[in-house]
Amino acid sequence: MTIAITWPMILALITGVPGVCGVVVYILRTYTRGYDWVKHQAEQDERIKELEKKHDEEIKTVKIELKALTKAMLACLQGLHEQGCNGPVTKAIDDLQEHINNRAHE
Fold first, then answer.
1. What residues make up the domain containing 88?
2. N or C, where is the chain less crowded by C-beta within 10 Å?
3. Number of alpha carbons in the 13 Å side-chain half-sphere of residue 29
4. 82: in domain
């Protein structure tokens, strides 16, 4: 039994092997891109958590500073009121105390 090698057989062999290799390379590239994308998403999630933590700490600091400034402002207004400054000072004291009471009940 002899096998005759013809030109169509040679062409099929030449085009078939690279075609299979191309499919394998395509599948590997697609998998690698998917893996890289998932890895990038995980890195972004970590960065977002770090930023949220930093943001929360900064908000706490700002709230403490605002509380101190509000108390200082109330003390200054009460000092002016004791010295006889009435009118707008009294209204400002009342407004500030109302604001403090509203914030305390939130």
1. 54-106
2. N
3. 6
4. yes
